[in-house]
Specification:
Layout lengths: L17 E5 L5 E6 L6 H28 L5 H27 L1 H18 L5 H37 L3 H30 L11 H19 L18 H9 L5 H33 L3 H23 L3 H25 L5 H33 L4 H22 L5 H35 L2
Antiparallel strand pairs: 1-2
Helix pairs in contact: 1-2, 1-3, 1-4, 1-5, 1-6, 2-3, 2-4, 2-7, 2-12, 3-4, 3-6, 4-5, 4-12, 5-6, 5-9, 5-11, 8-9, 8-11, 8-12, 8-13, 9-11, 10-11, 10-13, 11-12
Length: 448
């Protein structure tokens, strides 16, 4: 591709080709100015649509164990949701190929809408079916997102003669930065509209979830304005039967590159579940109370958003991905060791600051993993994007589901040790992938 300089992918409308039409005598009759395809419009629409949808869903997810605590229906619903998400992610790739990424995105939002609606009348008869259906739609919306975003980035790089790695990194940086903002907006809405209490005693719950429904509808409408993408343009293989399509979905599992990145994918799911389950309940609540959960998650989301944007801008190829992931892993390892050996619940200013500082550092690590895993899979598996991003959600959601099922029965220290062991395994496997397996064979191509 073109130069590896840090070119802003939103630029490049300076040189506009002129198309001159002529009449039968050969004299020019009209001059038509054409512009290269600007795929950043779709990037902005996709980013804002996800911001609206997940501002509602993310805040609702954080509240499930508090507002729907009778019979643990909220927590169990989330466990069922992520188990369903894991199972359906196995077949998400062929579904997205059949639907196309845009239709998959639009259909995928329907599950989030139904889940929020079920929270207005929470019961086993509403929450469980909504959770199962959301598992299905979540699998296709996230595979559709990875496919759509990567295809848009590759098209933008090709149309404007830009470096593929730089554009993929920048596109993922903007998307994940906007996406991380949902933790800020959603949790500030919760902070503004909810008052202390539990279950049915929480004041403002129905108003909050009604606002969430409005956010969902806005996000769905925005999805409809996305341009239709041609996923076959970028060397996408053609499948002659359903059997060959299903085989392609599992093809990444036969690739040693995917096998080496799976531990890091699983860790990315574990570290998200750690925030939702352990951090909010066992670190934030004892120090700041239930009312402090929204504020702490807003700090976490703000750090996540800023880091996602910066990490995306710094991404240009395999070497930059290796360094950025290593820094993020070090920061999250520091927090785990801090909580395990050095953190004690205290009163006063530091007792309030420490949980917020942990959340900010953890958010930096999450921003790193979100942007860099998406960029890495987009670079390594650009000819089989749907299957690669399906594997991303399979292993992420399997890890999250396991934590939601077991966290009521394990201590915080056990969770911390589990996280540290998985972090060491995952970063070792990742470095083996980038420094030994990929770099000698394909790094020159990826960074060219």
């Amino acid at each position: 591709m073109g130069s590896n300089e840090g070119i802003d992918p939103q630029s490049s409308e300076e040189e506009v080709p002129l198309v001159v039409s002529v009449d039968v005598s050969g004299a020019p009759s009209a001059v038509v100015r054409t512009t290269p395809s600007n795929h950043t419009r779709d990037l902005h629409i996709l980013s804002f649509a996800f911001l609206f949808v997940f501002s509602a869903y993310g805040a609702a997810q954080n509240l499930e164990s508090t507002v729907n605590n009778e019979g643990n229906i909220g927590t169990i619903s989330l466990a069922i949701l992520y188990l369903s998400f894991t199972l359906f992610s196995i077949i998400a790739s062929p579904v997205v190929r059949v639907l196309g990424s845009k239709r998959a995105l639009v259909l995928g939002t329907s599950g989030y809408l139904l889940f929020i609606a079920a929270n207005l009348k929470p019961s086993w008869y509403t929450m469980v079916p909504a959770s199962v259906y959301l598992g299905f739609t979540a699998s296709i919306i996230w595979v559709g997102e990875g496919t759509y975003l990567t295809t848009a980035a590759l098209s933008h790089a090709e149309d404007n003669n830009l470096h593929e790695g730089t554009v993929i990194g920048a596109f993922n940086g903007e998307f994940w930065s906007m996406f991380a903002g949902h933790q800020v907006i959603g949790n500030l809405l919760s902070l503004a509209l909810l008052r202390n209490g539990e279950g049915d005693d929480v004041t403002g719950k129905n108003l909050l979830f009604t606002v969430f429904l409005v956010c969902m509808i806005i996000g769905i409408v925005m999805m409809c304005f996305l341009s239709k993408r041609d996923e076959k343009k970028h060397d996408m293989p053609t499948y002659t039967s359903l059997n060959s399509l299903l085989k392609s979905s599992f093809a990444p599992l036969l690739d040693k590159r995917m096998l080496l990145v799976i531990p890091l994918i699983a860790y990315s799911g574990l570290q998200q579940a750690f925030v939702w389950a352990e951090y909010t309940e066992k670190i934030v609540t004892p120090a700041l109370g239930i009312s402090g959960v929204g504020g702490s998650m807003a700090v976490y989301g703000a750090a996540d958003a800023i880091c996602s944007l910066v990490a995306g801008r710094l991404t240009s190829g395999l070497r930059s991905i290796t360094w950025i992931v290593s820094i993020g892993a070090f920061l999250q390892g520091f927090v785990l060791l801090w909580v395990l050996f050095g953190y004690r619940l205290t009163s006063g200013l530091m007792g309030m600051v420490n949980p917020l500082l942990m959340g900010a550092i953890w958010g930096v690590g999450d921003g790193v993993l979100n942007t860099q895993l998406s960029a890495l899979l987009g670079l390594l598996f650009k000819n089989n994007k749907e299957a690669a991003f399906a594997q991303l959600k399979v292993w992420q959601c399997a890890a999250i589901a396991v934590i939601f099922f077991i966290y009521p029965y394990i201590s915080l220290n056990f969770m911390l040790v589990l996280m540290l062991v998985e972090l060491i395994i995952s970063i070792s496997s990742f470095l083996l992938l980038t420094l030994v397996v990929v770099r000698p064979t394909t790094a020159a191509i990826l960074n060219s």
